[in-house]
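Supplementary Note 3. Input sequence used for the single-chain structure prediction.
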Amino acid sequence: MKLSSFMHFAKFGIKTILFNKKDVILGTIIVTDKCNLSCKHCSVNNINCVIYPYEQIKKEMEKLYNMGVRILFFCGGETLLYKDKDKTIRDLVIEAKNMGFLIVNLVTNGTLPINVPEADLILLSLDGNRGKHNEIRGDTYDTILENIKNATSDNICFYMAINQINKDCIEDVCLLAKNTKNVRAVSFNFHTPYPNTKHLYLNKEEKAVCCEKIAKMMKEKVPVFNLKSAFKYIINNTFDTPCNQCVVIENGKVSTCGRCIDIPNLCEKCGYFFVAEYTLIFKGNIKVIFDMLKTYLKYI
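The predicted structure, written as discrete structure tokens, is reproduced below.
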């Protein structure tokens, strides 16, 4: 991370904590809901099968930038399917960098060739060992590993949503992240029980066991892009929601924290580690702040 970026985020954090401000810093743009997979835990794919026009996405980027967002995510659907005339997701990442966003990431399922070296992180969904991943996402595991091997940069971070199917695969994904070329780390979430996916949700005791496994992997020097100091809040869902410093925009509609905010009672079962982490940071939790500094400077 550049020193100038670090100073910007430090200044933002200090002002937010001292003055209890609710300004935004992280924004996500949904570039399409079109996806080439139908994963068991997903409820947001192929609803309209729309790829939003490049100029529309550019205007949404400008809107978020003017709101104060400096950490930008591109999400889907499947982001690598994005194509508007001759423009691809790589063009959007380059545009965002030129616009002044300090960190630009994208989320992908990894089933298509990975050629976005300009992204700071490519969060690639890998949901277990070969058997469990394929049970959740279809027969894609080997294709994904081949695409990672042939990726044009080492900016990939595994992104695993832990659920009832794959909860015993944490060590497998951690060790794969440690030993796979072009992969920097692994980042975990717990399954958030969107409509029709409640059977995949973990209870408190199951979450505690999972966090113990993640902590053990951290102790064994596996590159994990999560904050151990936030685990107890994540297990018990005792962090404030929604996170006011995060927004999502899809087709012009801006939502605080995430698209799921309109689903009754879902926030209290939030499984997104980063929501807990950001909320705790901007509430001034010293342990989480120092943990964040150590972790983010290592992997971004």
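The chain has one domain: 3-7+24-299. Residues 75 and 155 are 16 Å apart (CA to CA).
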